[in-house]
Amino acid sequence: MNARRFGVVALPYAWLLLFFLVPFLIVLKISLAHEAVSIPPYTPLFDHGRLVVTGANYLFLLSDALYWRAYLGAIRYAAIATAVTLLLGYPLAYGIARAPARWRGVLLMLVILPFWTSFLIRVYAWIGLLKENGIVNHALLSLGLIDAPLRLINNDFSVILGLVYAYLPFMVLPLYAQLEKLDPALSDAAADLGARPARAFWQVTLPLSLPGIVAGVLLVFIPAVGEFVIPDLLGGPNTLMIGKILWDEFFTNRDWPVAASLAIAMLLLLALPMGLMRRFLRGVA
Amino acid sequence: MTRRLSPFLIAMMVIGFVFLYAPIASVVVYSFNSSRLVTVWAGFSFEWYGALFRNEAIGRAAFISFEVALIAATGALILGTLVAYALARYRRFAGRTLFAAMATAPLVMPEIITGLSLLLLFVALEQATGWPEGRGIVTIAIAHITLGVAFVAVIVEARLSSFNRALEEAALDLGAGPARVFFVITLPLIAPALAAGWLLAFTLSFDDLVIASFTAGPASTTLPMVIFSSVRLGVSPQINALATLILIAVAVLVGGANRLVRVR
Amino acid sequence: MVAGFETPDAGAIAIDGADMAGIPPYRRPVNIMFQSYALFPHMSVARNVGFGLRQERLTRDAIAARVDAMLDLVQMRGFASRRPGQLSGGERQRVALARALVKEPKLLLLDEPLTALDRKLREETRFELKRIHQRVGVTFLMVTHDQEEAMSMASRLAVMNDGRIEQIGTPEHVYENPANRFVAGFLGAINLFEGQVAGSDGGAVLVDTDAGRLVATHAPLGAGSKVAVAVRPEKLRLAPTPSSVNTLTGTMRGVAYRGEASTAEIELANGRLLRVTVANTGGALPAPGTSVFLSFAPDAARVLQS
C-alpha cells in the first residue's frame, strides 16, 4: 500500500521541488548577489567557502524612484482594471446565471472561448482598433463625430482597456459559479417582503455573491500586477509596470540580480492575495 | 407567464459580448483585406494567407510551438493526474501541505516570475551539472509542463472528488486489484477531465510568450515570440491572417471537445 | 401570480377588491412562505424576520418589538441570534412563517409549506399552523399536493387542474359532493360505475351499469344520458345477505389493514375490482375467496355527469 502511494506521489513531488521550489530559492539567492561581467552575469553565493551576500540590489531598488513608480503603477493599473472588470463582469455573470437554463451553457461558452484563443492576438487586436489611423478613429471621423483622430493608444486608457479585456473571463467565471448557486427564491423573498429591486440586490444578492467577487477580484488582480505584454504593446513611454521593468532589466540591461530582486519584490506584493487565492481554490475544489 | 431578464441586464450582456468579440471580429475581417493599411478596405483577398504560408520563419516557429505544446501537454497530463490522484485519494502523507501548495501555486503565479525563476534554474543547473546544454525545446517544454501540471491537477481533482467513490469500492469488492480498478473504472470516468486538461495545457503552451521568452534558446523561437516581435513593429496583415487561422483551430478544437464531453 | 412575480395570461387578481394588475411584488399586501423557505443565509433569525419591516423604514425599537412578538408566536424566541444554517428543518419553517407574517399581510401564501418536513413533524405542524392562523386572523392561501393535508387544514378548498379551478367549497362539501370525475378521483379513493340513466323515481335516478341497476338520490335526469355512479369506499357496506337496493355480489380478494380501518378489495362477477373501507370496530373480515354481498344507500351515492 505505502509503496504504491510512494510511486504515485514521488515523481510529481520531485518534479515540483526541482522545477518550482528550487527556482525560487535560486531567484532569492541571485537577488542577493552582485552583478558581474561573466557568464552567468552574477557573482557566486559562495566564494572560496565564504558566504557572499549583499543587499545592494534591494537598496538600489529602494533608492531609485523608477522602481517605486513601477511598483505603485502596477498596483494602480491592476486595481483600476480590476474594478472596471468587476463592474462590467458582474451584470454579465448575473445575466447568464438568470438566463433560461438552455441558454446558460452557450452564453458561458461564449465567455470562455476568448480565453482559449491566443492572449497575444487578443491584445494585438486592440492595436488595430485604437491606433491613430486605426478602425475606431476611422469610424468616428467618417461619422463626423470628431474632427481629428483621438489619441487612444499608448496611454493609461489603452493599458487599462487591454487589462480589462484580457481578464474579463477570469472575473465572470467565479461570479457566475457563485450566482448560479443562489436560490432565485431569495431575491423573490426580498421583493415579497417589500424590498425594491435595487435594495433587494444590495441587501441580499450582493452580500451572498461576495465569495465570487473576492475570487474574481483576486484572479484578475494577481496576473494584472505581473502583466508584461499589455503595457508593452498598448502602453506608452510613461506606462510603468513592474513586470515590464523586470523584463527590460533582464533582456535589455542584462542585470540579472536586479531582475531577481524585482521578482522577489513582486512576490512580496502578491504574497497576501496569492495566499487568499489558494484558500479559495481549495474551497472551490 | 415567463420571467424576463431586466432590460438593464440584457443591455449589459449585449455590451459585454460585443466587447469580447468585436476586436476578434475586426482581426478576422481585416485578414481578408487586400490593402496593407488596416483602416482602408480595398477589397477581399487571400493575399495575406498566401504570404503567411510562404513565410518560413513563421512556419518554423509554428512547428516548434506545436512540438513543445505536444510534449508539454502530455507531460502535464501524466504528472497532473498523479498530483490530482494523490490529493484526492491520499488524505495524509508526509509533506502533503507543501505538495498541494506547489501543485496549485503556478495557477496564480505571474508568468514573468515563473519564467525568470526557471531560466535561472536552468543556468545554475548547467553550471553545476552540464545539463541542460544550452536552452531549447526541452527547457521550454519543462517550463510548460510545470505550468500545465497545476491546471490539469485542478481539473482532474475536481472530477475525481465529484464522482461516486462507491464505484471504485464496488470494483474492489468484486475482486479487481487497485491498479486494475484505476484503469478499468477510474480512468474512463475521469476521461473528459483528462481531455479537457490536456487541451488546456496544450493551449497554454502554444499560446505562451513570457515563459518561453525566458527559457528559449536562439534556435528555438516559438510562434508567440515571432508574433510578438512582429507586432511590436506595428499591425501586420499577415498576423491578422495567422490570428484568423488560430481562431478557427481553437473554435473547432473547443467545439469538438465540448461535444466529446457531452456525449459522455 | 398572486404575489406578482408572474403575469397572468388572462383573468384578473383582486385582493380586498383592489385589482393587482401591474403592481410589483414589493408593493402587494401579500407575503409568501416559500417552499424552500428562502431564508437569507447571511442574516440572523431576527434580521430575517425584521427584513420586511426594515423596508418600511420603521424605527429600530418598533422593529425589535414586532420581531420579538412574532418569534414568541412561533415559539422561536431563544433562536433570535442564530443563522438559518444552524436551525433544523422545522425551526426554519417557523422562522419563514414569522418572516412572512410580521408585515401583517392581507394574504399569506404558503407554497407547499410542509413538504420539506418529515411525516411526524408534518402532522404536528398542521395543528400549529391552524393555531397560528386563528391567532393572527390573516387569510392563508396554501398550495399543496397532499389531499389529506388540504382537507385537514382548509376552511375552503379549491381543486385545481391544468390551471383551472374544478371545484371550490368546504372540504366536507367537496369530498361528499364532487362536481366531476376529476375532483372525485383526486380527493380520496372512489368506486365509479359507468352507465346510462334508465329513468327517475321520486328524488332518485335509476342507472343501468355493468354491475346491474343502481339507485342514487339525485334530481331527475333525462333517460339515456351517460352518467357515473360514484360511491366512496367507506359508504359501501359488506353484508352476508343481500339487501333491498343496490346490492352487488363479489369475492373477497385481499385486505389491507390500516389500524383504525381496513380496506378490502372485492372482485365483482364481471372482473371489476371495488374498494371497501371497514372500520375496525370488532369482528374479523371474511377470508379471501369468500363470496360477499355489497350494498350502499341511495343517498350515499353521487351521480356524476360527463
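qc> Chain C touches chain A at residues 3-5, 24-27, 30-32, 34-36, 38-42, 51-52, 55-56, 99-100, 103 (CB under 8 Å).
qc> done
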